[in-house]
Amino acid sequence: MKEIMYTIKSVSDEGVYYLVNGWYKHKTFWINPKKIKPNMLFKRPSDAKRSLTNLLKIMPDYKTDDFKLVEVIV
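Now predict its structure.
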């Protein structure tokens, strides 16, 4: 059965990256879209947005990036 999961897409001068759910577990905040795995995605859009908000509080230099909520079918 297909399931819709979510992440945040970040576009900057450095490239395109997806926000990772479980920063500590995966030891990264952002990942290349080609390397994303289902266990790195969020179950709800609100979880992805909250994670981005929390990240921007500790890493404000990302605020200039262009963010978009992305649905991923897994």
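The mean pLDDT is 95.
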